[in-house]
Design a protein that fits this description.
Glutaredoxin; globular; alpha+beta; Glutathione S-transferase Yfyf (Class Pi), Chain A, domain 2; 10 helices; single chain
């Protein structure tokens, strides 16, 4: 059984999609990050960095419980565990390269774009421009790569597609635009193709029965950005 520590944000969404695609048995453990539950000692024992997602595999190697944190590490772990969505062996280098591109570039820069456009005090024009322009650059990299391609790596659907989908699913919020993918037709076509998969709708509903805190008030800001208040 996979215990899945979840909040409805882009990085956990990647894991929701994998679990639904693979048909693995799992249970949701809601972590309300706007209430600060990620800072509890119980959760820090799962992820010392205090971020979602994280998983505990109660049937890890040798029958021992295995913790895994960071969304792309979880995707690699689950793909290797199940033997699914890893693509062809000869594409392993490409797969890891695109996973790291998303993990170190597109993902964190998207998060900073969200922060400066939706959370930071007004007047941070430099920050807004910096991260918006970097997201536009990252989207252009993906758009160029996806020209004449159906999937991110090789000829099949892999965890690289799932990882990218988690953030592109929130492109409207990241880009603060009603049509964020219109300038990137190849990326848009890819996204529409992934969204046609039946597992996507199931992934979107993961955790929907839980009432997570939605207000971005002072409590949420202190929970999400504690270093700003230390």
């Amino acid at each position: 059984m996979i215990r899945f520590y979840f909040h409805p944000t882009p990085n956990p969404a990647k894991i929701s999609l994998f679990l639904e695609e693979a048909g693995l048995p799992y249970e949701i453990v809601p972590i309300d990050t706007k209430k600060g539950e990620q800072h509890s000692s119980e959760f820090r024992a799962i992820n010392p960095n205090g971020k979602v997602p994280a998983i505990v595999d109660t049937d890890g190697a040798g029958g021992k419980e295995t913790r895994v944190f960071d969304s792309n590490a979880i995707l690699i772990y689950l793909a290797e565990k199940t033997g699914k969505f890893l693509g062809a062996a000869e594409d392993r280098g490409e797969l890891l390269s695109w996973l790291m591109f998303i993990a170190s570039g597109l993902g964190p820069f998207s998060g900073q774009a969200v922060h400066f456009q939706h959370v930071a005090p007004a007047g941070n024009d430099y920050g807004v421009n910096r991260y918006r322009k970097e997201i536009e650059r990252h989207y252009k990299v993906m758009d160029d790569h996806l020209a004449q391609r159906e999937f991110v790596v090789g000829d099949s659907y892999t965890i690289a597609d799932m990882s990218l989908w988690g953030w592109i699913e929130r492109a409207a919020f990241v880009m603060k635009s009603d049509a964020p993918l219109d300038p990137y037709p190849n990326l848009k076509k890819w996204y529409q193709g992934i969204c046609a998969r039946l597992a996507v709708e199931r992934a979107r509903k993961v955790g929907s029965e839980h009432a997570f805190k939605s207000e971005m008030d002072d409590i949420a800001k202190r929970a999400l950005f504690p270093s700003n208040y230390s």
